Fold this protein.
Amino acid sequence: MKFIKNELKKLNKNYTNFFNNFKITNILIILLTLYAIIINFGDYYFIPLSILIMLPIIFYAEYSHKKLAYLIGVILGILFGILLSGKPPIHLVLIYIGLILVFTVFDFYIVIKREKSIPKYLCKLFESLLQVYIISYILMFGVTSLFLLTDFMIFGSKLTEYIYICFYLVGGLYVLPSTIMSVVYSDDKVSKISDILISKVLMIIMDLYFVIVLIYVLKGLIVFKYSIYEVHIIIGFLFMMFLPLSIMASNYEGLFYKINSKYLKYVFIVPLLLQIYTVFNQISTYGFTIMRYIGLMFIIFEVVTLGLLIYKDNKYIIDSLLVLCTLLIVTFIIPGCNIRDVVLSSQVNRLTKLYPVNLDYNSLSKSDKKEINDIYNYIIGLDRNSKDKIPDYIDKSNFKDYDVYESDNNYFHFSIYNKKELVNVDKYKLIEFVSNDGKGNTIKLGNYNCDFSDYLEVADELRDEVELEKYVGENDLIHLDTNTDFYITHISGEVKEDGYEMGYVEGILLYK
């Protein structure tokens, strides 16, 4: 009881200091929370867009006492709030996302830069965030239970659709400010429980995971078969565990912790080399995709961070955050180098190499046609302007068998995206974005079972994705009952000799 009382006192003291020292930051958080509760991100997008980019800048201004940053934050907030409220170009959206990420990472850099001992700071940060995580779940359970009980006993379950208010309240009034407080306010004292969790549980788990990864690498060398996605997930997750824990290990004494802090970083070179090989092999063979571009940037971050871990024994490890800022600028902001431009240019080059201007499409093999189709669909799926980069002679409507996979069982696969950019929802009160996989003719979407038999019959009859796309565009609204409609944004399925079935459906439930 005394422990809980002391922790509450500490929390109250930290929150008082946080509010006094970061008044405008707190006001922005409260405004964002109120907007979410009242509007539920349904309209007036300039409000959250403005606040989100202002938050890290205003925090920097209050933390570093740089008055010019206040002006920069307000200008950028108003500017992006206005520019992104309509139909902004993809480059502007990427710049916006990039700036938020860069400012946030730089904020963490300036905070941690002032710490005397990075290992002790990370241990304390882990403890603080763990407390926030646990308390937030308790709060969420308590608040939602009270809300549902009140709704059931007093309002007759008429307010259930507003349960999102509970999430916004806990997230905006507790989780977000408490997370920032955890980053800003720390001391050298770590509780016994957190100490055991870090030194006796997490580090042992990490070492065991390390051994499993090394076995995975050796197994792959024998059969020489790796999946790029498996490699990224397995080794990437290992890096995210290994990086902070190897730094925190230097906070403890003993051979076990010395091995983790001094020598484990050299062992990580082995899985890192495999990661580098798989990414570069995929890029050289199939070009850049969004995942491969992110994978490449993550590897660059890993390589530089590992070098900083090794060079002078963690002395400059904090500078890895500046490296991350630089990579984020390249990824989201710099024209020609950003993720959209690189991926689009790479895939268009692949497309024109497979199908040059002077080549007759009918002379291509089935495998080349299928690859052209996959590349084409990937390009037009990037954003609404990506199709403009495809040369005019490559027109999907010119090839009848773009999406027809001929085989012994007369197989036809289709994947249709609704290209409409504007939908009139004036007569509806609520909308709900839904999606689901399924088999057969009927797929459950929300509380409704939607029958897609008509679309499958048309697909079977047409056997042509271009014509099917027109049909879906003309019949994209399904009437479920007197008060509910379903608007199709994406459907996929397959037609076989022995029947047909839906594969995936995505769209919007519209409630009158």
The chain has 17 helices and seven strands.
